[in-house]
Design brief:
binds 3,4-dihydroxyphenylalanine, 11 helices, two-stranded antiparallel ribbon, 7-stranded mixed sheet, BirA Bifunctional Protein, domain 2
Length: 379
């Protein structure tokens, strides 16, 4: 039995040789240095400090060494791994700093730039269409006129030759605005003498009183009637009113003006027709129709070509018109011996419903941008 070998007898383990450990360390340091970004550094980290890295493998070999050699090899590997970890940490923070500096520049947000987080809305077709109609007349020299929506009963009715017992003046058709009695109590029913205007025609009277003849005005606006809201009625709707007062105006001027309007709005082959009617403020008065702009009358009497827009009538009812009643001229201080005039008014909603095949008038009032947007014209 031989005695234990006490003398230093290092087993030659290739991986633990000092020059090998130094090489592993230097390769790791070089790899970290070469890593241009954090991603590359992560790869180098796995390769040089991970469980399969040369230094980790060398570390594992230490266990196989005789006790005397273990300490020295352990120290060598430990120092090398320490240097590698230190270099890794240094490179890591250098690259992070670099990245942060770059992100600050590349992803900088200029908070002073305009933003569009709120989606753009669209102008309502009622507005754009009223402007379009008004423009037709502005181009001919008419002036846009306005009047109040809460209107004196006198302007809404009396000045326009509605007699006191005219059915339109009754509470079931007209909204009366509540006022205050001289005793300080709220007025009842129609006592206040103030109504929500039932049509844009009172602007005729206002315009005549405010201006000297000749007068040429166009008036788009909101009007009110006590109708229930349904697919074809609304208690609030829009009208456009026209008034021309000058020397020598005749019904031929009215007809020519109407034809010009529908041609401007719907195309050169359009025309209008008049049917006798009654309005207190015009004499003679007429109902005006325009040719159906879809079938141009071709659907009439032809069962093979039915027209949804005009129900194969060939014509679409527009509104009322006529020659200004001399009583209105007198009420507004205009000499009917010298001046004559024509006027017309029609509902915008109805016109738009025809024009865009809108089946339910309520769609126009709900304020849903999905309705307005297809009509174009962003704000
Ligand atoms: N104001 C009438 C209505 O609302 C429409 C109208 C008829 C207006 C004849 C006019 C006109 O200017 O001449 O029913």
């Amino acid at each position: 039995m031989s005695a234990p070998n006490k003398s230093y007898d290092p087993v030659e383990v290739e991986a633990l040789k000092p020059e090998q450990i130094e090489r592993m360390r230097d390769e790791a340091l070089a790899a970290f240095e070469a890593a241009g970004d954090l991603e590359a550094l992560q790869e180098a980290k796995v390769a040089h400090t991970g469980g399969g890295s040369p230094l980790a493998l060398a570390n594992r070999e230490i266990g196989a060494l005789p006790p005397q050699a273990k300490a020295e090899a352990g120290k060598r590997v430990g120092q090398a791994r320490g240097a590698v970890n230190k270099a890794l940490a240094a490179r890591q923070s250098a690259l992070e700093e670099e990245r942060d500096a770059r992100v600050l520049v590349e992803e900088a947000v200029d908070v002073t730039l305009p933003y569009d987080r709120e989606p753009a809305g669209a102008r309502h077709p009622l507005t754009t269409f009223m402007e379009r109609v008004a423009d037709v007349f502005v181009a001919m020299g008419y002036e846009v006129a306005e009047g109040p929506e809460a209107e004196a009963e006198w302007f809404n009715f009396d000045a326009l030759n509605f007699l006191p017992d005219h059915p339109a003046r009754q509470m079931q058709d007209t909204f009366f605005v509540e006022g205050t009695t001289p005793e300080g109590k709220p007025t009842e029913g129609d006592e206040s003498g103030v109504v929500l205007r039932t049509h844009t025609s009172p602007v005729q009277a206002r315009a005549l009183l405010e201006r000297e003849a000749p007068v040429y005005i166009v008036c788009p606006g909101r009007v009110y009637r006590t109708d229930e809201l349904d697919a074809t009625h609304s208690p609030v709707f829009h009208q456009i009113e026209l008034l021309a007062v000058d020397e020598g105006l005749t019904m031929a001027d009215l007809k020519g003006t109407l034809d010009h309007m529908v041609q401007s709005l719907f195309g050169p082959d359009m025309k209008t027709r008049l049917r006798p009617n009654y309005f207190p403020f015009t004499e003679p008065s007429a109902e005006m129709d325009m040719l159906c702009y879809v079938c141009k009358g071709a659907s009439v009497g032809d069962p093979d070509r039915p027209c949804r827009t005009c129900s194969s009538e060939g014509w679409i009812e527009l509104g009322g018109c006529g020659m200004v009643n001399p009583r209105v001229l007198v009420a507004c201080g205009v000499d009917p011996e010298k001046y004559s005039g024509f006027a017309f008014g029609f509902g915008i909603e109805r016109m738009l419903m025809f024009r865009h095949n809108v089946e339910d008038m309520r769609d126009m009032f709900e304020g849903d941008v999905r309705f307005t947007r297809p009509f174009g014209m962003e704000i």
